[in-house]
Structures are given as structure tokens and as C-alpha cells.
Design a protein that fits this description.
Chain B: One of its GO terms (molecular function) is ATP binding. The complex is a heterodimer. In chain A, the strands form 2 sheets. An 8-stranded mixed sheet of chain A has the order 6-7-8-3-9-10-12-11, sandwiched between helices. A 4-stranded antiparallel sheet of chain A has the order 2-1-4-5. Chain A starts with a strand and ends in a 10-residue tail after the last helix. Chain A is α/β, with parallel strands linked by helices. In chain A, helix 4 crosses helix 5 and helix 6 runs parallel beside helix 7. Chain A has 14 helices and 12 strands. By secondary structure, chain B is an alpha/beta fold. Chain B has a domain of 73 residues. In chain B, the strands form 3 sheets. A 6-stranded mixed sheet of chain B has the order 6-7-8-3-9-10, with helices on both faces. Chain B is globular and about 65 Å long. Classes of the chains: A alpha/beta, B alpha/beta. The interface between A and B is large, with 53 and 55 residues.
Chain lengths: 377, 338
């Protein structure tokens, strides 16, 4: 059985209008019908560009943002129906590692206080002596010397701060760790250290990770299964090796071809699929396939009317799920890509009238979820 | 002669009561017309300060700039502020990382664009507007007439960066300095912007300095690369040469520690460079990278490391290291020139 089971999860942020009587005029569909199954002891990678809903999904799973619909089961227990009080007890089972350790660590708390806080909040056994012992254990596990207990976050480098963030997430022996862009704020040479640390910890404590990131190379390196999100939905999901060897969804193909490879010979020869335009507004997503406005493989029928479901292709690629009506035909080369003009993309999202308001609201909705300390509230 | 010649550039920040910080230390490089030169380094390596010093954009208080910067035969370092203002925008233009903070949020895109044209190119109002429309079209913004009347917040990140590029190329500069122009953007948008920059350099024949931490961006865009560490250039080479034969242990370690999207059989653990950029040695005492270096030997700490020429006079590949990757002998002042 999977450790985390998510069914038809939706997170819609209401858009309000009117000065005196606020009425709901629409919704930003940040996450719109997502299913996830995450096996214990594995790493699940969630990739997508900004605004695709990957962070919102991560937070909704932890109930840091309340989902508007759907179910989330952790170890068989439906956590969306739990009361706030019971939820707090469940929270110790999953923790979060945030992107910017400087913003998620209180600058006025010493390392000792930062690491003791979750222990105290969740009544970790052993009393203060036990807590002090645990703090030392945690520091050792993430590769920081014991002597740092009295230091403050500003005294550390970015990589060390991220180690502190990881130590804090580990404090309560969680089963699941959701890491939202754990290395993207770090320098290249430090990134590798933190990625390796995450892998070592996984082996040592049989942790389960959901890694949310925009860097496809990083995700490939650490994940067993990878899901690609576009505009609130998963468009493709497969074992990491399969996905990168043979991406089936046109968006995944474009995304992968856009990642620069640190090798001039590869860069010179490989073919690029250059997408036109930007992500459409999640408040008014295109009908049918969300990607059809920018898709170079778009067909005249079905693409703009019928939303494709995430389905497995048992014949051509077992275990590989894709949400595209024409995945088989594209794979077989029966459909060839055509050029998409930026003007065409530009016309599709609702840019007139409430469109601009929606865009701002979406921004605000995103801003409502700052990187607060995990399980602190 | 090169379009831009930077010789022995150094920048020192002084603050009362504190040790002066030498952010850039003896940096020299050339940019030819039509050439893209990459400056690669991690945070704190001095790559952005180098570009600001070339532009003359560093504040005069508390900053000492040494060395010379020559653009098309004119020395920029000795120019007064007024002449320098004419050079900036007209001959040299800069694209920054975050277009939201470098565009004025309360002025329309159109006014920000026409301002450059009237100020530097001496166009009239009507001409400037027509030209601005052309420029937006050139950088790939659909419906430019509508966009000219909009404010920066109404544009997406990629669109804003396109506007920044339009402003930068408005006066057909001879040199374009791009400081992490795609770091704040998503990969698919990054690909669009890099494609645009590539096309602009090819079409206009201007020189470009690309400042980035991303070796992937360099691989796809630049002709020459300079790798900076702790304020100095530690390795310079043609892009293909550098990637084929990374010779400074830092460059080599960096290339090995990047997870690659096209790696079909990834190793379980990534190669790492131990420590952080804070673990450093002042250059006059030895190699700044020594505390993190796998190849470190005692000679690394006996004074500033010599620059070894591993290439040929035609295809230079200088490396600031006493024991470059692939070399067995310890290099010193005596045997470094071969």
C-alpha cells in the first residue's frame, strides 16, 4: 500500500470582487484534480514551472492550505477529515523542507532553540536532557559540528542553513518529508552536497520524499518516480528513467529540451522545442487540454474540447502515464509538430476585463503561503 | 583590436573599522565584436562586480577601482560621469537578472523605451514611438501597440525581460552585458530568452558578456569562458576547450557536481566540492581554492599561484593553478612558461 494516497485533489482560491459586498466571481484553479500514490521509502519528484501549482499541491497535502475537494490518505488514514487538534498529532509524521532556509529559520533563535522547538511542541520523550541529546544527534546526522548549538542562522552559509532546515524536519522522525525546492537557492557546488545528504538520510532512516523542484536534472537524480505538472494538473508521470528517456507528453518534451546541458557539443546538436508565449492564467484555464494553446502537436479535434485524463499506455510504455489524447500517435511519429505563433498563444487566455484582476489575485493567493516553519502552528 | 579590453581590473570595498574587501582582483579579458564571452562563478566570486565596474556603475564612495577598461579605443575608467552616461545606454547596455526591480513600476513600458531613444539616439517623440514598436516586435512581443501603454506589473516575467532587452538594444549598443538574465525565469522561458539573445548578437554583431552561474547556459551561448573564483579568473578557454578539458580543479569539480538531464546512468551520489566559498585563503598567500581542493599540495600555499598556459598562442587556455587537472608536475614561476 502506498504511504500517501491523494485522490482528485482540488485547491481553488476564490476571486472576490465588489467593495462593499464581497462576492466570489471566480476561482484560481491552482490544483485541479490531482491523484498521487507515493510508496514508502521512495522519492517522488514533482516538476513544473512557476504557477503550475506544484507548491500548492505540496502544501495542500500537508493541509497547510486547505484543499477545496478530494482526499488525502497518509498510511490509510484520511487526514482531511481530522479535527485541527488530531491533525496536529498527525503533522509530526510529515515535515517540510523549504527553499530559502534564511526565510524559514527565525533569525533570532539559536540553533538549539530552533531544533528544540518541534521537540517541545510535539512532546518528544526524554525531557530537556533527552531534547539536548536529540539536538546533538540531529546536528551529527546532517553533518554539522556540535559546537554550533549556540549560533544563529546568519552565522551560517546557505548550504549549512539548508542542513539546519533538514535537521529540523528530521527532528520528530517523520515518515514523509516534502521538500519544496530544497536546493534551488544554493550554489552549484553546494547543491550537490545537499542532494547527497538527502539521499544518505533516506537510506539511513528509510524516509519517503516528495521533492518539488523546477530543475529537471536535480529531480532526475534523486527521484524514483517523476510527475510533470502543467496548470494545476499532472500531465505525465513515470519512473524517472523512462520519463527522461522517452517523454511522451508534448509539454514534457518541450520542458526537457529547454534545459541547458553543460556540454557545448550536446548543445550544438540536440533539437529544441521552443514553446511560445507564457503559462495561461489558472483563473481561466483553456478548455480541453490545458496545454493545447501552446502545443506544437495540437490537433483539430478533441484537444480544445475534451480534457485528457492521465492514462497508462500499457502497450507502448508500461507504467508510464500521460494525459494526452494523441500520445501514441506522437510517439509513433504519425503526427508531426507544427509551428505555433506567439500571437496565437497570446489570444487564448482571457486578457480582457477581469483577466488582469485575476492575475493579480493569483499572485496574492500565492503570497498568502509564506515559508513558515513546519508544524509550528 | 578587440571591442572591449579589460586589463588588470580590481575593485576594493572599504568600510571604516573593517578590513577592506577585494571583490575583484586583477581581472583581464577581451570581448571581440560579435563574440559572446561568459563569466562563470558562484555567489561572491566577483562576477557581477566585474560587470558593474566595466559599466562604471559602482558608487564612488568606499570603492576603489583599479586597472583599465577600454571600449573601442576609449578608456572608460578615466572618463567623467557625464561622458560615461553617454556611453552607457548608447555604446554599452546592460540586462539585469530581475526585470521587475530594474523597470520602473509606475512608468509605462512605452515611456521607458522611448526615453532611451530620445535621450541617446536623439529621436523625436513620434519617431521614438514608432521605433519602440519595432523594437518590441523584434524581441518577440505580440501586439506591441497595446503593450507600449501597459505597466511592468501587467507583463509576465519573460515578457518583462524581453522589454529590458528591447531597452538595452534600443540604441544598437556595441556591447551588451547580461548579468544572469534568465536566472529568475522558468526553463521554457529561459530557452526563449537565450534564443533571442543568440539571434540579436548574430544579427547586430555586438559583443556580449554573459554573467552566469549556469554552465549549461554558457555551453549553449558563449564562445569564450572565464571561470572566476574568489575575485580572480582561475581558468579561461574557448567554450568547447573548457568543457572538453577543464583544467582548474574548481572548474573540473563544478562540472562533475552538476546533475545532468541527459545522464542516462546517474551515479548514486554526486561528486561534491567540500566546504563552501567561505573557506578561502587570501590570494597573496596562496590559492583561494586550496582549502576545498582535492589536488591541493604544499606548494598551493607558497604565494600567489602562477598562471599556467595549457593551450597554444592561438588557442590560449590559461589556468591559475600549481597542479592543474591532468598535469603531474608541480608548476611554479620557473617552469610555468613552456
Amino acid at each position: 500500500m502506498s504511504l500517501l494516497e491523494v485522490r482528485d485533489l482540488e485547491v481553488h482560491f476564490p476571486i472576490k470582487a465588489g467593495t462593499l459586498f464581497q462576492r466570489t466571481v471566480g476561482a484560481v484553479k491552482a490544483v485541479d484534480g490531482v491523484d498521487l500514490d507515493i510508496e514508502a521509502g521512495t522519492t517522488f519528484g514533482l516538476v513544473g514551472e512557476s504557477g503550475c501549482g506544484k507548491s500548492t499541491l505540496g502544501r495542500a497535502v500537508m493541509r497547510l492550505i486547505e484543499p477545496t475537494k478530494g482526499s488525502v490518505k497518509l498510511d490509510g488514514q484520511d487526514i482531511l477529515s481530522l479535527s485541527e487538534r488530531r491533525m496536529r498529532a498527525v503533522r509530526r509524521q510529515f515535515q517540510m523542507v523549504f527553499q530559502d532556509p534564511m526565510a524559514s529559520l527565525d533569525p533570532r533563535q539559536s540553533v538549539e532553540s530552533l531544533l528544540t522547538e518541534p521537540l517541545r511542541a510535539h512532546k518528544f520523550p526524554g525531557g530537556s536532557a533527552g531534547h539536548a541529546k536529540r539536538v546533538r544527534e540531529l546536528l551529527d546526522v546532517v553533518g554539522l559540528p556540535e559546537s554550533v548549538v549556540n549560533r544563529y542562522p546568519h552565522e551560517f552559509s546557505g548550504g549549512q542553513r539548508q542542513r539546519l532546515g533538514i535537521a529540523r524536519a528530521l527532528a520528530l522522525n517523520p515518515a514523509l518529508i516534502i521538500a519544496d525546492e530544497p536546493v534551488s537557492a544554493l550554489d552549484v557546488s553546494i547543491q550537490a552536497q545537499v542532494i547527497n545528504l538527502l539521499k544518505e538520510l533516506q537510506e539511513r532512516f528509510s524516509l519517503t520524499y516528495v521533492v518539488i523542484a523546477h530543475d529537471l536534472a536535480v529531480v532526475r537524480h534523486i527521484s524514483k518516480t517523476v510527475a510533470v505538472m502543467y496548470l494545476g494538473g499532472i500531465v505525465e508521470q513515470a519512473p524517472s528513467a523512462d520519463l527522461y528517456r522517452q517523454p511522451l507528453h508534448p509539454y514534457t518534451k518541450a520542458l526537457m529540451s529547454a534545459v541547458p546541458v553543460p556540454d557545448p557539443n550536446v548543445e550544438e546538436t540536440r533539437s529544441r522545442i521552443l514553446l511560445q508565449g507564457d503559462l495561461p492564467s489558472p483563473a481561466n484555464p483553456p478548455a480541453g487540454c490545458r496545454f493545447h494553446t501552446r502545443c506544437p502537436w495540437k490537433q483539430a479535434s478533441r484537444c480544445d474540447t475534451e480534457r485528457p485524463t492521465l492514462r497508462e499506455l500499457p502497450l507502448v510504455a508500461p507504467g508510464h502515464k500521460v494525459a494526452c489524447h494523441y500520445a501514441e500517435d506522437i510517439l509513433a511519429g504519425k503526427i508531426t509538430p507544427h509551428e505555433v505563433k506567439p500571437e496565437e498563444v497570446e489570444l487564448t487566455p482571457a486578457a480582457e476585463g477581469p483577466g488582469s484582476i485575476e492575475a493579480t489575485e493569483a499572485h496574492v493567493a500565492g503570497g498568502l503561503t509564506p515559508g513558515g516553519p513546519p508544524g509550528a502552528r | 583590436m578587440s571591442l572591449l579590453e579589460v586589463r588588470d581590473l580590481s575593485v576594493t570595498f572599504t568600510r571604516s573599522g573593517q578590513q577592506p574587501v577585494r571583490a575583484v582582483d586583477g581581472v583581464s579579458f577581451d570581448v571581440a565584436a560579435g563574440q559572446s564571452v561568459g563569466i562563470v562563478g558562484e555567489s561572491g566570486s566577483g562576477k557581477s562586480v566585474t560587470s558593474l565596474a566595466v559599466m562604471g556603475l559602482l558608487p564612488s564612495r568606499g570603492v576603489t577601482v583599479g586597472g583599465t577598461v577600454t571600449l573601442d579605443g576609449n578608456e572608460l575608467t578615466s572618463m567623467d560621469q557625464r561622458d560615461l552616461r553617454d556611453v552607457r545606454g548608447r555604446d554599452v547596455a546592460m540586462i539585469f537578472q530581475d526585470p521587475m526591480t530594474s523597470l520602473n513600476p509606475v512608468v509605462t513600458v512605452g515611456r521607458q523605451l522611448t526615453e532611451v531613444l530620445t535621450r541617446h539616439a536623439g529621436l523625436g517623440k513620434g519617431e521614438a514611438k514608432a521605433e519602440a514598436e519595432q523594437l518590441l516586435r523584434r524581441v518577440g512581443i505580440p501586439d506591441p501597440v497595446r503593450r507600449l501603454g501597459e505597466y511592468p506589473h501587467q507583463l509576465s516575467g519573460g515578457m518583462r525581460q524581453r522589454v529590458m532587452i528591447a531597452i538595452a538594444i534600443a540604441c544598437r549598443p556595441k556591447l551588451l552585458i547580461a548579468d544572469e538574465p534568465t536566472t529568475a525565469l522558468d526553463v521554457t522561458i529561459q530557452a526563449q530568452i537565450l534564443d533571442l539573445l543568440r539571434m540579436l548578437v548574430a544579427e547586430s554583431g555586438c559583443g556580449m558578456i554573459m554573467i552566469t552561474h549556469d554552465l549549461g547556459v554558457v555551453a549553449g551561448l558563449c564562445d569564450d569562458v572565464h571561470v572566476m573564483y574568489s575575485g580572480r579568473i582561475v581558468e579561461s578557454a574557448g567554450t568547447k576547450d573548457l568543457f572538453a578539458r577543464p583544467s582548474h580543479p574548481y572548474t573540473d569539480g563544478l562540472l562533475q557536481s552538476i546533475p545532468r538531464i541527459d545522464d542516462d546512468d546517474p551515479a548514486d551520489l554526486l561528486h561534491t566540492i567540500p566546504g563552501s566559498a567561505r573557506d578561502t585563503v587570501p590570494w597573496d598567500r596562496g590559492c583561494a581554492f586550496q582549502p576545498r581542493c582535492e589536488r591541493a599540495v604544499a606548494e598551493c600555499l607558497s604565494g600567489p599561484p602562477p598562471v599556467a598556459e595549457l593551450g597554444t598562442p592561438i588557442v590560449p587556455h590559461p589556468v591559475r593553478c600549481v597542479r592543474p587537472v591532468g598535469e603531474d608536475v608541480i608548476l611554479h614561476e620557473g617552469n610555468v612558461a613552456r
